[in-house]
């Protein structure tokens, strides 16, 4: 795959269709600047502000854009809230669709065939692979991303965080908790 991508890139550069410097800039942007810290700020604000939470659940794209996060691979965002009754898990069974503006580039496992198939066949088993055990009566809903719709999980706010600032809250929001393969960190638990 690496070789094929490089061959394709060389060809596109030779034909003048792409500019290597521009390509590097895009990769750098998503590797270094756009990342899960964006999504964490969205989640922290939703935990802190019920009106924002309502807006986020009603119109994810607009509420996320209000934080300054928009663009490619995030044009149609749907935010799914975890509740004590339902845990949400996001996958792209077809390929690797992922909400770039809020989470950055997808982790390798997200794109892997084992994750993509097991997430729909045995979501509880996937969570176990990630070291997550849910209460048996909490159902798991799996959301299959598409080229049109990208999902972001709104994790449950950890107990013991009353009165915390949004900055403090955002520290508890991991990338995996926004995919659904993890939970938000409890206060005092190391990353
Ligand atoms: Fe995909």
Describe the structure.
- This protein is mostly helical.
- The chain has two domains: 1-33, no CATH class; 35-179, Alpha-Beta Complex (Nitrile Hydratase, Chain A), CATH 3.90.330.
- It is 47% helix and 12% strand.
- It has helices at residues 2-14, 20-33, 36-48, 50-58, 60-65, 100-103, 108-111, 113-121, 123-129, 166-170, 175-179; strands at 77-81, 86-91, 139-144, 150-154.
- The strands form two sheets. Strands 1-4 form a two-stranded parallel sheet. A two-stranded parallel sheet has the order 2-3.
- The protein is globular, with a radius of gyration of 18 Å.
- The two termini are 33 Å apart.
- The relative contact order is 0.17.
- The mean pLDDT is 94.
- Residues 92, 94-97, 145 line the site of fe (iii) ion (FE).
Descriptive keywords:
binds fe (iii) ion, 12% strand, Nitrile Hydratase, Chain A, two-stranded parallel sheet, 2 domains, 11 helices, 191 residues, globular
- Describe the largest sheet: 2 strands, parallel
Percent of residues in helical segments? 40-55%
**Strand elements, count:** 4
CATH superfamily of the largest domain: Nitrile hydratase alpha /Thiocyanate hydrolase gamma
Report the radius of gyration as a whole number of Å. Answer: 18 Å
Q: What is the level-2 CATH architecture name of the largest domain?
A: Alpha-Beta Complex
Strand order of the largest sheet: 1-4
- Which descriptor suits the 3D outline? globular
Order of helices and strands: HHHHHEEHHHHEEHH
Roughly what is the average pLDDT, rounded to an integer?
94
- Alpha-carbon distance between the termini? 33 Å
CATH domain class of the largest domain: Alpha Beta
Question: Helix- and strand-based class?
Answer: mainly alpha
Q: Ions, cofactors, ligands: which are bound? A: fe (iii) ion
The share of residues in extended strands comes to: 5-15%
The oligomeric status of these chains comes to: single chain
| Count of individual domains | 2
Enumerate the spans where pLDDT stays under 50 for 5 or more consecutive residues.
none
Annotation field: number of helices: 11
């Amino acid at each position: 795959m690496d070789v094929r991508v490089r061959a394709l890139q060389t060809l596109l550069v030779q034909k003048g269709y792409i500019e290597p410097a521009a390509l590097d800039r895009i990769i750098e942007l998503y590797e270094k600047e756009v990342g899960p810290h964006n999504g964490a700020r969205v989640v922290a604000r939703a935990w802190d502000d019920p009106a924002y939470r309502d807006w986020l659940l009603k119109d994810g794209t607009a509420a996320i854009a209000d934080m300054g996060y928009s663009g490619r691979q995030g044009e149609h965002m749907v935010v799914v809230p975890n509740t004590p009754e339902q845990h949400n898990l996001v996958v792209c069974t077809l390929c690797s669709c992922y909400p770039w503006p809020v989470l950055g580039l997808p982790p390798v496992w997200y794109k892997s065939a084992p994750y993509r198939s097991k997430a729909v066949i045995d979501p509880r088993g996937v969570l176990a692979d990630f070291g997550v055990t849910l209460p048996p009566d909490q159902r798991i809903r799996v959301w299959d991303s598409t080229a049109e719709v990208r999902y972001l999980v709104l994790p449950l706010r950890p107990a013991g965080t009353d009165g915390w600032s949004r900055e403090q809250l955002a520290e508890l929001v991991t990338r995996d908790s926004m995919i659904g393969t993890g939970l938000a960190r409890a206060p005092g638990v190391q990353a």
